[in-house]
Amino acid sequence: MIEQNHTAVWDRCLAIIRDNIPEESFKTWFAPIKPISLEDSVLTLEVMSDFVREQIEANFLDLLGKVLRREIGPLASLVYKVRIANGGYISQKQGAGHGYTNREIAAPEAAADYNGNPYLIPGLRKLNIDPQLNPQYAMSNFIEGDCNRLARAAGETIAARPGRNSFNPLFIYGGPGLGKTHLSQAIGIAVKERFPDKQVLYVNANTFLNQYMWAASAARNNHDSNQISDFLRFYQLIDVLIIDDVQEFADKKGTQNAFFHIFNHLHQSGKQLVLTSDRPPVDLQGLDQRLLSRFKWGLSAELTVPSYETRLAILKAKALSEGVDVPEDILQLIARKVKTNIRELEGILFSLTANATFSKKEITMRMASELIDKIVEQHEVEISVSRIQSVVCNYFHITVDQFLSKTRKREIVQARQIAMYLSRSLTKTSLSSIGAQLGGKDHATVLHACNTVSDLMDTDRSFRNYVVDIEKQITSAE
Length: 478
Known about the structure:
The structure is a single chain. The protein is α/β, with parallel strands linked by helices. It has helices at residues 6-20, 23-30, 50-71, 149-160, 180-194, 205-222, 226-236, 253-268, 289-295, 308-322, 328-337, 342-359, 365-376, 385-396, 400-404, 410-426, 431-437, 443-459, 461-475; strands at residues 34-39, 42-47, 77-82, 102-106, 170-174, 200-204, 240-244, 272-277, 299-303. It folds into four domains: 6-116, DnaA, N-terminal domain (GMP Synthetase, Chain A, domain 3); 135-303, Rossmann fold, CATH 3.40.50.300; 308-379, Helicase, Ruva Protein, domain 3, CATH 1.10.8; 385-475, Chromosomal Replication Initiator Protein Dnaa, Chain: A (Orthogonal Bundle), CATH 1.10.1750.10. It has 19 helices and nine strands. It has a five-stranded parallel beta sheet with strand order 6-7-8-5-9, with helices on both faces. Strands 1-2-3-4 form a four-stranded mixed beta sheet.
């Protein structure tokens, strides 16, 4: 009869193992292991790191398999639980043991059917990775329009052939609330639906940053470089890696270096990368040129503000999915008035239905108009580079021709720099586009202008007042 006390079983296994390997190896690899449970011939052990697990598999798995079969029986199998502090590198599903992730191997005889070879050990069968995908972000819920058609088409191509397409990496950029997170997650969801065995992971850049910092801190404090190695190895096992908001890597040299190596490994291995940012690669600051050049390898696709027709389609789809009945003319009103981003568009719809529900009143045009006026009044003025140029010229009493000329007169140059600074601050226009519209300058000139104005605002109160006054005129109703 098999002893079901996991501690006693593991102690007997350790005694046999100790007699068959050098004492130093036993102390290093087996003595720290803790038995967790023994159920239905499955022994669960806790090991301290993924590195320990790899060393055991590489050097002692045959011995371990024989010992397990002797003590537990012919169907014995082993499950490792690799301790990961603070949630570690693999997100846990609810109900999973706190601080653990399951990693399962089979003992030799339990793997007898593996390609028909009873001695071919499959090793690590499956990483239990939660892809961190929200099913509400499915591609079917992503409304297509001119504002996103290229990015969506690229996403669908990736979903059909992840890693085997011309869009690697796919770099999706645009302002807040335009659907970057939705589309990037939709790609991951579509991949999992078509290829269930592929490892897909969505992670925000800030989460990635915190994970790296924890690993680096643990490695530094414990004098154990394996923490960094485990971090890199985990991400290098992903088939489709989605990193949201990569601009968060700015000025984080260690994180950038780690991601550089992960990017290279995945790209060279034919794995897929999907990245999002609030600006195109050319406008990203504080990032290593090695990374920026790789961001440009695939396709950069911009998400822009949706047209009226697309906004109306989004509202109709959202109302239908939420099961709320909103009159067509009210949806049209919202679509006309709310122009900035999709998140605000949906927020107005939710606020409107919530107000109607709590007040037990029908949704009326008046109710919608009052709510819109309260929430989006500040966005009534459409701010463009041309509007900023016009206001700046009027403020300094110069003509547009003077403004766009190649003159180096101080007052003209400064006016142009202020216009560039405000265009970057008040619009989502790229630096290259701002430069093209304001005198045919390149993005480096625009960046220099922005830095110059920012420095002057910090040191010159009068100059700061000029800029603030101009900004008020730009954002006020005409």
